[in-house]
Design goal:
Strand order of the largest sheet of chain B: 3-6
Oligomer: heterodimer
Largest sheet of chain A: 5 strands, antiparallel
Order of helices and strands of chain B: EHHEHHHHHHHHEEEEH
Number of helices of chain A: 3
Number of helices of chain B: 11
Order of helices and strands of chain A: HHHEEEEEEEEE
Number of domains of chain A: 1
Number of strands of chain A: 9
CATH architecture of chain A: Sandwich
């Protein structure tokens, strides 16, 4: 009975971006929001989850032309500072941005000339969990915010 | 926050059972047979999991206001009185989404005299579905006091939608969330379509409608995870019929990647330009209306 319950518990922990209660609002409580200073609004495509070192997960989101977007990655300290995130085109897989070329800073802002479906891929540094070993997990959040692109000129 | 996976698993087996039974996009095929795992080990989480997300009605409306009329038309909305007809869970979940989109439409396009009514119906629909929200009587007071203040109304209306969304997601109510997303998306598209009065003059709006091809693709992908639920399956079939029409739109590739402008701002070029003809727009508009009517007439 106990080993059966433990099995169910272990199976559940295979889902890093599932709605695991400890993490699900992490991006709203822990990622630094641009809202108050820059006029950005929360974007409902944001998401958080429970990650372990060495894991990767992806979020496919729509980014509309005419809007400025802010993407902020935040994570529990035990996951380290060097979290990598990339933006790729969802259809072609073309790499559009890699924060590895930006000293792995966890934040970027951009606008799109055309509306796009893009994949945000986050990778937590580490070797991953080896079979036969236990591992610590931590929360990771992807906070997406948007505002209308300011008009310039007269 | 340090989470030892091993003691977490020991402490919350019941919660783990819920997560296992209502997984959202997880690939449980990687789970080895029970007899190959020792009692105190945790297998690595599944790699390369991808989650499709869908913009909210607020995010679909935000750029529409500058393209068409600044004020909305209350006649386009699902009448509040229809609330009494929604007895089934399917009808309630779909129309929580529909009414949420209507509330955001009223807030965005200054149909101020309808805001209180749609706010109330959203709260009541949420209660029927047992969707807890973070909103309080103070927020309701804000709605009443801020009638006429568009930005505040949009913020509170959006908070109501987001709190319903988050509550359903947090509690692994994926099927209900699918239906709410579908209702909100279809109603938003219906309202966007209605802004095209003259196709040639309103082509910029029609192009924004065409771009919803992408958000529909993500919505269908998200819902496919729950198609074992009969209500989700039936709505998914309807959306796939609409998707067939969107799939017929022509698209051309643009050149360019991520560049930095002279103000130091990153601008992403490239992507694809989707075009739409008058006949294609008409077909999409008719199909959207057909699906929307099935939602608001559901019982």
């Amino acid at each position: 009975m106990i080993s059966g319950l433990m099995m169910l518990a272990m199976i559940s922990l295979h889902l890093p971006l599932n709605s695991q209660a400890p993490c699900v609002m992490f991006h709203r409580t822990s990622c630094g929001s641009m809202a108050s200073e820059e006029g950005f609004m929360y974007n409902s495509q944001s998401k958080s989850g429970l990650f372990a070192p060495g894991t990767t997960s992806k979020l496919k989101c729509i980014f509309y032309s005419g809007l400025d977007y802010s993407i902020t990655i935040c994570a529990d300290k035990l996951l380290g500072d060097g979290i990598q995130f990339t933006l790729t085109d969802a259809a072609s897989g073309e790499l559009l941005y890699d924060n590895a070329t930006d000293n792995k800073i966890p934040h970027m802002e951009f606008s799109c000339e055309t509306t796009r479906n893009m994949v945000i891929t986050v990778t937590v540094p580490g070797a991953g969990i080896k079979k036969g070993k236990s591992a610590d997990g931590g929360c990771l959040g992807i906070l997406i915010e948007q505002k209308k692109t300011p008009k310039v000129g007269f | 926050m340090k989470n030892q996976l091993k003691p977490f698993a020991l402490l919350l087996p019941a919660a783990a059972l819920v997560f296992t039974m209502s997984s959202c996009g997880g690939d449980n095929n990687d789970t080895p047979p029970a007899d190959t795992l020792a009692a105190d080990t945790v297998e690595a989480p599944t790699q390369n999991m991808e989650f499709a997300r869908v913009p909210s009605p607020a995010e679909m409306f935000i750029f529409m206001k500058g393209l068409g009329s600044a004020t909305g038309n209350a006649d386009l909305l699902n009448p509040v009185d229809n609330e009494k007809n929604y007895a089934s869970k399917k009808a309630q979940a779909l129309n929580l989404g529909v009414y949420s989109a209507d509330l955001l439409y009223c807030s965005t396009f200054e149909v101020s005299n309808k805001v209180v009514g749609y706010f109330g119906v959203c709260m009541r629909m949420g209660e029927k579905l047992q969707v807890a929200t973070n909103l309080t009587d103070k927020d309701k007071e804000r709605i009443n006091k801020n009638t006429g203040n568009s930005d505040s109304l949009i913020a509170v209306s959006n908070d109501l939608y987001l709190s319903s969304f988050q509550n359903l997601e947090q509690n692994d109510r994926g099927a209900d969330l699918c239906l709410m997303l579908a209702g909100g998306w279809v109603e938003s598209l219906h309202l966007m379509n209605s802004m095209v009065k003259d196709f040639d003059k309103d082509k910029a709006i029609a192009i924004k409608v065409a771009e919803q091809k992408m958000s529909l693709g993500n919505l269908v992908e998200y819902m496919a995870q729950y198609e074992s639920n009969a209500d989700v399956a039936s709505v998914l079939q309807q959306l796939n019929e609409l998707k067939t029409l969107f799939d017929g739109l022509s698209q051309s590739a643009n050149s360019g990647g991520m560049k930095t402008n002279d103000k130091g701002k990153k601008v992403l070029g490239g992507g694809t330009q989707i075009d739409i003809t008058k006949d294609q727009f008409s077909a999409i508009s008719v199909k959207t209306k057909e699906i929307r009517n099935s939602f608001i007439n559901a019982q």
